[in-house]
Design a protein that fits this description.
Blueprint: H1 2-21, E1 29-34, H2 39-52, E2 57-60, E3 65-67, E4 70-72, H3 83-95, E5 100-104, H4 107-111, E6 120-125, H5 133-136, H6 139-151, E7 153-159, H7 165-174, E8 178-182, H8 203-218, H9 223-232, E9 241-245, E10 249-253, H10 258-270, E11 276-280, H11 291-299, E12 304-307, H12 317-325, E13 334-336, H13 340-350, E14 356-360, E15 367-370, E16 373-376, H14 379-386
Parallel strand pairs: 1-5, 1-6, 2-5, 6-7, 7-8, 10-14, 11-12, 11-14, 12-13
Antiparallel strand pairs: 2-3, 3-4, 9-10, 15-16
Helix pairs in contact: 1-3, 2-8, 2-9, 8-9, 10-11, 11-12
C-alpha cells in the first residue's frame, strides 16, 4: 500500500514535470532500452550508430546523459533520472532540434512513473533475469514492469534467446502491439552474424550488438552505416575494460547480477591462461536473494574469490559477504576483505604471470556508500593508482 501511495505521488510529479516542460517526450523519437543486463552497452551502441549516420541524437544512460555536445552526471547509483530531470533533458534535446533520444530505462523508473508522458518510438528489452526481487517481490511482477515500456512503444523488440521471450510476446500480442524478435541462435525477424567485424565480441555482447542493429535497421539506417559503427565501437566505461595488462591483466566490469557475472566470467575464463581472480560484493538494502547465486556464478569460473564491500549502506557488510559465500563451491578458495582497496591490494599481491583479476560491481561509479555517507571511489582510478609502480 505504501509503495502504491509513493508511486501515485511520483505520477503527480511526472504530470507536473510534463506540464512544466511542455510534454517534450511527445515531440522527439524516444528509443527506450530496458532489461536486466546489457542496457547500457545497447543504449550506447544505438546512440553511436544514429550519430555516425548523421542523425541528431541525445542519450541518457547509467554512465551519463549526453545532450548535443553537453555531458551531464545523472546522479549517484542512478540510471533513470527523476521525472523533472528526464523532462528537462528531453526539452533540451527538443530545443537542440534532435530527432532521436535514446533513454536507458529501469524497472524502478517504470514502476515509479518517472517516464510517464513519454511516447516511445521503439522499445527494446535485452533480457530479464534474477534482479530487484526485493522491490518487485516476484520475478513475474518484475517482468511485467519491464513490459510496461514496450506497451508504451509504437514498436517492440524482444530477445528470442532469452527465457522471458514467450511471456513478453504473450503480453504484447494481447495488447495488439507490433513486435520484432531478434536472435543469435534461433530463427527470428532479425538474425545477424558479426564474425566479419574486425574486433572480437564477447559472446554476451553479441546480443547487445544485434539488439542495436535491429532497432537501427528498423529506423532506416543502412547496413553499411551500422557495420561501420560496430567495427569501431568502444564499450562504455567500466564494461569489460582492461585497466592493466603487463605480467597479468586487470579487468573492471559493472556486472552485478548472477547472469551478468556468469556471462562475463565465462568469456574471460576462455581468454585466461593462468588463474582467474574475482573481486566482488553485493549492494546492501537490495535484492538479498541473488547473493548466493552470485557466489555460485563466480565459483563456476574463478580460481580465487575475494569478497568485498559494494555500497553496503546500513547493512552489515560481513553478513552480505557471508550470504554470497553460501553459493561458492567448496573447492574454490575465497577470502573476505571488506575494504575494497585492501581487497584489490591482496589480489595484486597474489597475482602471477598470465593471471587475470576481474573486479565487478562498481565500474564507472564514482562513490561507495558506507552507512549513509557516500565516499569518493572509482574502481578504474583505484586500479591505475595501485598499479602505477608495477
Amino acid at each position: 500500500m505504501l509503495r502504491k501511495i509513493k508511486n501515485f505521488i511520483h505520477l503527480c510529479l511526472a504530470i507536473l514535470a510534463n506540464l512544466w516542460y511542455g510534454f517534450p517526450g511527445r515531440k522527439i523519437k524516444v528509443i527506450g532500452i530496458t532489461g536486466t543486463d546489457g542496457k547500457t552497452t545497447t543504449s550506447h551502441l544505438i546512440y553511436e550508430i544514429l550519430k555516425n549516420a548523421g542523425k541528431k541524437v541525445s542519450l541518457v544512460s547509467t554512465v551519463y546523459a549526453k545532450i548535443g555536445s553537453q555531458e551531464f552526471d545523472t546522479g549517484l547509483h542512478t540510471t533513470t533520472p527523476s521525472c523533472f530531470l528526464i523532462q528537462k533533458l528531453l526539452k533540451m534535446a527538443v530545443d537542440n532540434k534532435d530527432e532521436y533520444f535514446v533513454l536507458e530505462t529501469t524497472s524502478h523508473g517504470l514502476d515509479q512513473n518517472r517516464t510517464w508522458g513519454i511516447n516511445y518510438e521503439a522499445g527494446l528489452i535485452t533480457n530479464v533475469t534474477h534482479e530487484h526481487l526485493d522491490y518487485h517481490c516476484s520475478f513475474n511482477s518484475y517482468l511485467k514492469t519491464k513490459a510496461r515500456l514496450l506497451l508504451n512503444a509504437n514498436v517492440s523488440f524482444i530477445n528470442k534467446d532469452d527465457s522471458s521471450y514467450e511471456q513478453l510476446e504473450k503480453i504484447l500480442k494481447a495488447n495488439h502491439k507490433k513486435i520484432f524478435s531478434y536472435s543469435v541462435k534461433n530463427q527470428a525477424d532479425y538474425h545477424q552474424d558479426f564474425n566479419n567485424l574486425k574486433q572480437e565480441i564477447a559472446d554476451y555482447n553479441c546480443h547487445n550488438f544485434l539488439a542495436a542493429y535491429s532497432v537501427c535497421n528498423y529506423l532506416g539506417i543502412s547496413e553499411d552505416s551500422i557495420f561501420a559503427t560496430l567495427k569501431k565501437f568502444q564499450l562504455p566505461p567500466g564494461r569489460l575494460e582492461t585497466v592493466f595488462n603487463k605480467k597479468f591483466k586487470i579487468i573492471v566490469d559493472f556486472a552485478h547480477t548472477p547472469n551478468a557475472i556468469d556471462a562475463l566470467l565465462q568469456y574471460v575464463r576462455k581468454q585466461t591462461a593462468g588463474r582467474l581472480i574475482h573481486i566482488f560484493g553485493s549492494a546492501g538494502l537490495r535484492d538479498a536473494s541473488k547473493r548466493p547465486l552470485m557466489g555460485e556464478a563466480s565459483s563456476k569460473y574463478s580460481d580465487v574469490i575475494i569478497l568485498t564491500e559494494e555500497d553496503y549502506r546500513t547493512e552489515d557488510p560481513q553478513k552480505i559477504a557471508a550470504s554470497i559465500a553460501l553459493g561458492i563451491s567448496k573447492n574454490i578458495p575465497y577470502e573476505i576483505i571488506l575494504n575494497r582497496e585492501e581487497a584489490i591490494k591482496k589480489a595484486l599481491a597474489i597475482a602471477k604471470e598470465k593471471d587475470v583479476i576481474v573486479i565487478t560491481g562498481k565500474a564507472h561509479e564514482q562513490s561507495l556508500c558506507r552507512g549513509k555517507i557516500e565516499y569518493p571511489w572509482n574502481d578504474i582510478q583505484a586500479v591505475k593508482r595501485l598499479t602505477q609502480d608495477l
